[in-house]
Design a protein that fits this description.
single chain; mainly alpha; 0% strand; DUF1992 domain-containing protein
């Protein structure tokens, strides 16, 4: 008779008591010992209220690049701006990149979708081209010339 299901489903108190008993038994058996994160503080407790906390954590934990609100992505791009320009080989590419960056900053300022505010400044194309050219000439002057190649006759040393 004890295997027969009860005529009425258990109430919330009975369910809560059953769950609490199961948890206490698992604790006594040591099922919760040595879990990952045991004894570590829980992220986000006691901190400031950031509405984008979850996206920031996901980007950090997954080491994602190229994802996030436009304001954050533009800030990151702004911080890496000189390195990105230095990777370009032609002045026309630098001008195109700076113009595209300025267009995206202005477009992000116009969006009313919420999220963090866009505080990234636009860049002056002429100033950036001059700085790129100066860094390029400075790097060329400071790097030693490659060693001369030894000529070989028919692949012999």
């Amino acid at each position: 008779m004890s295997d027969d299901p009860p005529d009425t489903p258990p109430g919330p108190r009975e369910r809560a008591a059953y769950i609490e008993t199961a948890i206490q038994q698992a604790i006594r058996r040591g099922d919760f010992d040595d879990l990952p994160g045991a004894g570590k503080p829980i992220d986000g407790l006691g901190g400031h209220d950031d509405p984008d906390w979850w996206i920031r954590r996901k980007i950090r934990d997954e080491q994602l690049t190229g994802l996030g609100p436009p304001a954050l992505m533009l800030r990151i791009e702004h911080a890496e701006f000189d390195a990105r320009l230095d990777a370009l080989a032609r002045e026309s590419d630098v001008r195109d990149y700076v113009s595209d960056f300025n267009r995206r900053v202005i477009e992000a300022r116009r969006q009313l979708l919420g999220g963090p505010p866009v505080v990234t400044p636009t860049r002056d194309v002429e100033v950036e081209v001059a700085a790129w050219s100066w860094r390029r000439s400075d790097a060329a002057a400071s790097s030693p010339p490659p060693p001369p190649r030894r000529r070989r006759l028919f692949g012999r040393p």
